[in-house]
Specification:
There is one protein chain. By secondary structure, the chain is an all-alpha fold. The chain has a domain at 2-53. Helices cover 81% and strands 0% of the residues. It is built from two helices and no strands. Helix 1 packs antiparallel against helix 2. The protein is rod-shaped. The chain starts with a helix and ends in a 5-residue tail after the last helix.
Length: 78
């Protein structure tokens, strides 16, 4: 799952860098609206994938600690 976020992050960043120079940011009317909306959408996609990468890593670390705490609480007398 982490690989999917990483690949999506890299592809979205590459597309943003490639298209930044080609978008008509100095255009008029609908051209400019399209360019700004496209950039905002691309940035949302990049930050979403970055959040997914960081959140999965943090969630995995928290689940490892929880399992270790539960293992230490088991005692057998006998």
């Amino acid at each position: 799952m982490r690989q999917r976020f990483l690949i999506s992050f890299l592809i979205a960043t590459t597309i943003l860098v490639y298209s930044f120079g080609r978008l008509p940011l100095n255009g008029q009317g609908l051209e400019k609206v399209f360019a700004v909306c496209w950039l905002v959408f691309a940035i949302v996609v990049i930050f979403g994938n970055l959040y997914g990468l960081l959140h999965k890593r943090k969630q995995k670390m928290n689940s490892t600690v929880t399992v270790r705490e539960n293992e230490s609480k088991h005692r057998s007398y006998g």
